[in-house]
């Protein structure tokens, strides 16, 4: 049963449209099985509208409970056999201020995973990891596990974004792309999509103006 709890980083409408195009009948004339290992409140399931089958994995029970096709689980230990899915489609945490894990002592508006949940995020969640070595280690492990359950020839669609920290753009998207290459995936296409960005906080006037969707193919 849905709790109605909100999520601070759902797929925007423009990103969903890119996903519809990527998984269109032109590219996939037959229905396929798609996994989102970081499903949040389950926006991935919109792809069922164009005839595909979707499964989500989400570690936070409140968000997992938002959709019947999302299971509570850990992206580092997926409950599926090798080569189970035709495609992976997901958006990881960006390692930005949404992953701040302190409890605010005032009534200021905060767009963080913790604030939206109303509690600390799970210990095994990336929702408490800032951009850095621990973030990279976490996602490298998650991507190896996702690729394990992806069929040979399968498609991996990844939505990421850079962000500004201390006045400098952090190359989050570039790191994820290099990691995909390191894990043996072949690049297919890159989309840069102008999206509404969070305009709160210290860097409100210094935001990266787009998100990136990269499409990869498993050999």
Molecular structure report:
By secondary structure, the chain is an alpha/beta fold. It has a single domain (13-217), classed as Vaccinia Virus protein VP39 (Rossmann fold, 3-Layer(aba) Sandwich). The protein has helices at residues 13-22, 61-64, 113-117, 133-148, 172-182, and strands at 33-36, 53-58, 70-72, 85-90, 150-160, 163-165, 168-170, 186-194, 210-217. It has a 7-stranded mixed β-sheet with strand order 3-2-1-4-5-9-8, with helices on both faces. A two-stranded antiparallel ribbon has the order 6-7. α4 (133-148) packs across α5 (172-182). Mean pLDDT is 85; it is low at 197-201.
What topology does this entry show?
Layout: H1 13-22, E1 33-36, E2 53-58, H2 61-64, E3 70-72, E4 85-90, H3 113-117, H4 133-148, E5 150-160, E6 163-165, E7 168-170, H5 172-182, E8 186-194, E9 210-217
Parallel strand pairs: 1-2, 1-4, 2-3, 4-5
Antiparallel strand pairs: 5-9, 6-7, 8-9
Helix pairs in contact: 4-5
In short:
With 219 residues, the chain is α/β, with parallel strands linked by helices.
- What is the second-level CATH architecture? 3-Layer(aba) Sandwich
The major pleated sheet works out as: 7 strands, mixed
User: Which consecutive residue ranges, at least 5 long each, have pLDDT under 50?
Assistant: 197-201
Q: Rg to the nearest angstrom?
A: 17 Å
H/E series, N to C? Answer: HEEHEEHHEEEHEE
CATH superfamily: Vaccinia Virus protein VP39
* Number of E strands: 9
How many domains in all?
1
The CATH class assignment is Alpha Beta
């Amino acid at each position: 049963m849905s709790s109605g709890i909100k999520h601070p980083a759902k797929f925007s409408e423009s990103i969903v449209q890119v996903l519809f195009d990527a998984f269109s009948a032109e590219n996939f004339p037959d229905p396929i099985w798609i996994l989102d290992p970081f499903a949040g409140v389950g926006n991935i399931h919109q792809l069922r509208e164009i005839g595909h089958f979707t499964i989500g994995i989400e570690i936070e029970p409140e968000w997992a409970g938002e959709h019947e096709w999302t299971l509570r689980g850990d992206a580092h230990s997926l409950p599926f056999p090798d080569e189970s899915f035709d495609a992976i489609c997901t958006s990881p945490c960006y390692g930005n201020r949404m992953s701040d894990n302190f409890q605010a002592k005032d009534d200021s508006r905060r767009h963080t995973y913790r604030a939206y949940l109303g509690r600390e995020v799970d210990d095994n969640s990336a929702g408490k990891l800032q951009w850095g070595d621990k973030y990279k280690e976490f996602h490298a492990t998650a991507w190896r596990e996702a690729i394990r359950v992806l069929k040979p020839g399968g498609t991996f669609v990844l939505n990421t974004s850079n962000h500004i920290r201390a006045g400098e753009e952090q190359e989050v998207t570039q790191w994820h792309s290099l990691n995909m290459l390191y894990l043996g995936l072949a690049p297919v296409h890159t989309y840069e999509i102008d999206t509404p960005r969070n305009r709160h906080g210290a860097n409100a006037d210094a935001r990266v103006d787009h998100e990136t969707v990269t499409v990869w193919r498993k050999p």
